[in-house]
Amino acid sequence: MTAVANHLVPVISSESNSGFIGLNNASMNDSYHRIHGEVPSHDVVWRIACDESGTEFTDIIYEKAITINRPDRRNAFRPHTVKELIRAFNDARDDSSVGVIILTGKGTEAFCSGGDQALRTRDGYADYENFGRLNVLDLQVAGYAVGGGHVLHMVCDLTIAADNAIFGQTGPKVGSFDAGYGSSIMSRLVGPKKAREMWFLARFYTAEEAEKMGLVNTVVPLEKLEQETIKWSREILRNSPTAIRVLKSALNAVDDGHAGLQALGGDATLIFYGTEEGSEGKTAFVERRRPDFLKFPRRP
User: What highest taxon heads this organism's lineage (predicted)?
Assistant: First the structure.
């Protein structure tokens, strides 16, 4: 218990006005950190990537990380932007070398503003929560994340916010709304009462206020936003990819209904097929013998 408590000593950042829970420096000498070491802090070299279509992206910059590239429109997305995001997410998801996808907006004034209607595609709703089912989606927010951009941040797994970030919904002010993930996910994140406040009053909230209500994971100085996001991503990548995959499916299952349960079942089946018990039936069939399942324990 003492070892665990040492990790959770409140740390007040001298570079931010808000306090946050951080790792106590004294705990860096424990056995875990002696074995695993510190998270690497070297700079990332970004390289332009493409999907199998080979078609150039115009509304986004794709480097396996994804940047909405419409700064002249405060990175508001349109249907074409959504199509490019889908292409990039699908490509990154299918790349076995990618474990974390970082999503952000070009510049420091807005991550993404507006675009509620653009989220709706011909086949229904652009389901960003599930595009990265095999990957963790890290969102890096600087400036405004409002309207459709606010919904986009909520369906990502994690949100790292700069201290200049602003969050909120605009829909009711302009005769629009999101009765899908933008409502249900928000209610789970901040609670039903706060979600009603955010939608009915359409107010904006600072990064510090967003952190207090559980809308974002952490707030850092703007100049350290990318560095912190990379650090979180690398820390995730050090962990078991199968464990992360199943946990993500489990965390999403409630919102995904039967589709979510199917995905969770699929992940469990994938793990099972890799076990000796999972191979017994197939092996017995090939060898034309009765499978011997009695040799496997029936655990409580």
Answer: Eukaryota
**pLDDT tens-digit series, residues 93-119:** 899 899 999 999 998 887 877 654 444
Q: State pLDDT tens for residues 184-199.
A: 899 999 999 999 999 9
Q: At 219, is the secondary structure helix, strand, or coil?
A: strand
pLDDT score at 214: 95
Buried b (16+ CB within 10 A) or exposed e, 65-74: bbbbbbeebb
293 is written with which tokens?
A: 């399942």
State the Cα–Cα distance between residues 83 and 81, nearest whole angstrom.
5
With 0-12 CB in 10 A as exposed, 13-18 as middle and 19+ as buried, what is 34? exposed
Q: Is the pLDDT of residue 167 over 60?
A: yes
pTM summary value:
0.75
How high is the mean pLDDT of the chain? 82
Give the integer Cα–Cα distance in Å for 292 and 280.
Answer: 7
Give the angle 277-278-283 at the CA atoms, nearest 5°.
90
Output DSSP code: residue 300.
-
- Please check whether residue 281 is in contact with residue 300, taking contact to mean a CB–CB distance below 8 angstroms: no
Q: Read off the tokens for 46.
A: 């970004």
14 three-class SS: coil
Q: Are 235 and 227 in contact (CB under 8 A)?
A: no
